[in-house]
Amino acid sequence: MRVWWWWVFFFVLGALVGCGRAPSVGAPGAIVLPARSATPAAPFTTIPPSTPPATATPWLSPTPDATPDKWSWWVHGTRLRGANIYQRRVFPELDGTTFLGPGPLGPPYTQADFDALAAQGANWVNLSVPGLFTVQPPYAPDPAVVAAVDRLLAMVARAHLWVVLSARTGPGRSEFSILREGAGDWFPRKYLLESVWRDAKARRAWAAMWRYTAARYRDNPVIVGYDLMVEPNANDIVGAWDPQAFMARYGGTGYDWNTWYPDLVAAIREVDPETPILVGCMGYSSLDWLATMQPVDARRVVYTVHQYAPFAYTHQRPEDHRPYPGRFDLDDDGQPETFDRRWVMDNLQTLAAFRARVGAPVAVNEMGVKRWAPGAADFMRDQMAVLEGLGVNYAVWMWYPAWPPLAEGDHDFNFRLGDEPDHRTDVPNPLWAVYRRFWQRNEASP
User: Fold this and answer.
1) Residue-level pLDDT at 98
2) 160-211, pLDDT tens digit by residue?
3) Any residues with CB less than 8 A from the CB of 106 and at least 6 apart, and which?
4) C-alpha to C-alpha distance for 222 and 160, rounded to whole angstroms
5) Among 6, 71, 356, 360, which residue has the least CB neighbours within 10 Å?
6) Class of domain 72-439
7) How far apart are CA 190 and CA 176, in angstroms?
8) Crossing angle, helix 341-358 and helix 376-390, to 10 degrees?
9) Which of 294, 278, 157, 296 has the alpha carbon at shortest distance from 210?
10) What pLDDT band is residue 213 in, cutting at 50, 70 and 90?
11) Predicted TM-score of the model (pTM)
């Protein structure tokens, strides 16, 4: 995520989608999405489980194992549906003493927060948290972060949720690299640390961090994945937004994530041969950058994206009033484009094309929309329908804690608050109904 405070969620009925480009609507074998309802369906009703994709591949089977291991959750169709929770270091000089809580990480989550997420039907939480090592040298385990992550994992386990551990920070990369648009605005530039892309020592320490993390958690039964880095973004650091142009200039250098993420995979596999490893692409893990992802020769790797396209829609201000479906400039080229179900289907076919090319599973471990976007429920429903048809796991951004001070400063993606920008308490609404209905398709949890 490139904006400093994001968070999200949705509903649907499944649609079968084959790999490759989607057929035209009305053509034989065309994708048929459910019709929209003028009135939102009852927000908290259970719907039947989805069926697995019809097309099998060597790693995607329509029949789950009788005794599934962690890998089976990524290769038997859509089986993990859930949400992200977000944590970062609390800096009292920036955050005060209440907004994100007392620290060391915030905002504060309690057991009740995770229990409430599970009660909605979710079976997966993506822990988007600091990595276990310090960001400044000498690079070593950070006791406060380790203790905080241990506590989170214990609460997740008690709530009977699967978890992916996603590292936002690590040696040579602070949280503020992901939030770098705020440098010099809401935080001083001294907090912006992103030397890992040009510092081989920091990169080696990042591998050591993941070796340490995997050794610590390899026997944890609820961890079904390690996400190596949340939103690799060296292209933003060098100001390159065209994937091909970036690769032509920086491919093979330390700025190229492809050159050193395999070292992290190898470090994990030295101590943990089984837990799946998730790898996001450059460009903040945008779908537009997935084609630049070079697969690693290793077992049990899942390739991931964060789906916030089109940004002009998902991150609009309340006064923008850009609807779904609608017609407006989606890609900053000065020309309006049609934004509808067909756009959603074509956009997500990028996942199917990549999956077919590399022969490995894919996932969307962040996706969402600001709660006031017109047609947000329909937009998220259509996306989830396509992902279900593709057999792809997904997690929305995000599940907020019941920490009242947070809602005053960070609420854009808190779908539980409804579509009124000034509303600050939970209220049943169509977007929440969408998420619940999809989550209630889950058939298994720890």
Assistant:
1) 95
2) 999 999 999 999 999 999 999 999 999 999 999 999 999 999 999 999 999 9
3) 87, 88, 90, 95, 99, 100
4) 8
5) 356
6) alpha beta
7) 10
8) 30
9) 278
10) very high
11) 0.86
Strand partners, 127: 85, 165
Provide the angle, in degrees to the nearest 10, between the axes of the packed helices 143-158 and 111-119. 40
φ, ψ of residue 198 to 5 degrees: the values are -125, 5
pLDDT at 50 over 90: no
User: Residue 420 gets which letter from DSSP?
Assistant: -
- Residue 29 phi, psi dihedral angles, 5° rounding: 80, 10
CA–CA separation, 79 vs 128, rounded Å?
A: 20
C-alpha distances out from residue 229 to 4, 178, 369, Å: 17, 11, 22
**Measured between alpha carbons, how far is 89 from 154 in angstroms, rounded to an integer?**
20
Handedness of CA 235, 236, 237, 238 (dihedral sign): positive
Rounded (10°) angle between helices 261-271 and 200-217: 30
Report residue 282 as tokens. 């450059």
pLDDT, position 97: 87
With beta carbons less than 8 A apart as the criterion, state whether 164 and 394 touch.
no
What dihedral do alpha carbons 277, 171, 88, 241 form, nearest 10°? -70
pLDDT score of 301: 98
319 pLDDT exceeds 50?
yes
Q: Which pLDDT score, from 0 to 100, does residue 68 have?
A: 66
Q: How far, rounded to the nearest angstrom, does the alpha carbon of residue 8 sit from its chain's CA centroid?
A: 10
Is residue 391 a contact partner of residue 81, using CB atoms and an 8 Å limit? no
pLDDT value of position 12: 33
Closest to 177 (Cα-Cα) out of 94, 223, 238, 224? 238
Rounded to a whole number of angstroms, the CA Rg of the chain reads 20
Mean pLDDT of the chain: 88
User: To which H or E segment does residue 226 belong?
Assistant: strand 223-227
* Total length of the chain: 446
**CB hemisphere CA count around 127 (13 angstroms):** 30
Residue 207 token pair: 């591998």
Q: Which pLDDT band holds residue 59 (cuts at 50, 70, 90)?
A: very low
332, 306 contact by CB (below 8 A): no
Structure tokens at 154: 């214990």
Between 13-22, 225-234, 255-264, 395-404, the lowest mean confidence (pLDDT) is in 13-22
